[in-house]
Amino acid sequence: MEENKDANLLVIVMDTNPSQRIIRENPHHLTQCLDSIVAFANAHLMQKAQNKLAVLACHHHATEFLYPTPGKPLDIRQVDGQYEAFTLVEKTIKQKLAKVIGEAPRLSVPTESLLAGSMAMALCYIARVNRNKPAGVKINSRILVVTGSNECASQYMTYMNVFFTAQKQNVTLDVCALDKPLSLLQQGCDITGGQYLKLPQLDGFLQYLLWVFLPEPLTRCKLVLPPPVKVDYRAACFCHRELIDIGYVCSVCLSIFCKFSPICTTCHTVFKAPAPIAAKPKKKKMKS
């Protein structure tokens, strides 16, 4: 009975950046992914009456809440034969996303997605929900990131802060990569105990969402899920944005560089140049 009173909060971070390769090649893929995410979100709400949902759109210029909307809910006419809450979720997400895309500035060159900031906003929303929850109610929170973008090493520090904050707040991070493997987000899933999946094909997107990400983290150990991939924990240098095995770390801001620099480009701390290693004096041979 106590378990039935627990609420599960799912925050979906959906990457809607038009610079993604799968969207550039076929804009219809965005509509296909949106329909699958809406069906997945409604399946989460259908599991338990206490379940809660939030959906964020991560664009190239900002992050916007698609659901729930602040203030008064949208006045939406019910569709015959559909549960009112499901209709509200679907119509609200689609109307808000259309507004976000319509108001976004036009791109002349491909731009990176603000995924790290979107995940930080999701953590802030989870913290607010936990702060305002009724006494005696436990909320199990998790974040699902759906993206087809390449990860950007310029957001490395923000990623790490998000991962360890989620770990401290007992928030599980799940990632569904639609295009290329994402090593940094793999680290976040491993740190928080979440599930990482590189989607084999886009046609089965909804089936993979329901199979891998719909079950709660506590019940996943009883299911046959894809085997975990080997996580690459190498850090990305701040100068060339490439993963390195050995590097130099700033003692002030913990920035990582592949080569020694007398000045930290992040916090502008000046370091002393390493002194050359003095040669050992040769021992004189004792005359017999």
UniProtKB/TrEMBL annotation:
It comes from the Eukaryota. Coiled coil: none annotated. Its main location: nucleus. One of its GO terms (biological process) is nucleotide-excision repair. Pfam families: Tfb4 (PF03850). GO terms for molecular function: zinc ion binding. InterPro entries: TFIIH_Tfb4/GTF2H3 (IPR004600), vWFA_dom_sf (IPR036465). It is found in: Nucleus. GO terms for cellular component: transcription factor TFIIH core complex; transcription factor TFIIH holo complex. Keywords: DNA damage, DNA repair, Metal-binding, Nucleus, Transcription, Transcription regulation, Zinc, Zinc-finger. Belongs to the TFB4 family. Part of a TFIID-containing RNA polymerase II pre-initiation complex that is composed of TBP and at least GTF2A1, GTF2A2, GTF2E1, GTF2E2, GTF2F1, GTF2H2, GTF2H3, GTF2H4, GTF2H5, GTF2B, TCEA1, ERCC2, ERCC3, TAF1, TAF2, TAF3, TAF4, TAF5, TAF6, TAF7, TAF8, TAF9, TAF10, TAF11, TAF12 and TAF13. Component of the 7-subunit TFIIH core complex composed of XPB/ERCC3, XPD/ERCC2, GTF2H1, GTF2H2, GTF2H3, GTF2H4 and GTF2H5, which is active in NER. Component of the general transcription and DNA repair factor IIH (TFIIH) core complex, which is involved in general and transcription-coupled nucleotide excision repair (NER) of damaged DNA and, when complexed to CAK, in RNA transcription by RNA polymerase II. In NER, TFIIH acts by opening DNA around the lesion to allow the excision of the damaged oligonucleotide and its replacement by a new DNA fragment. In transcription, TFIIH has an essential role in transcription initiation. This is General transcription factor IIH subunit 3. It comes from Aedes albopictus (Asian tiger mosquito).
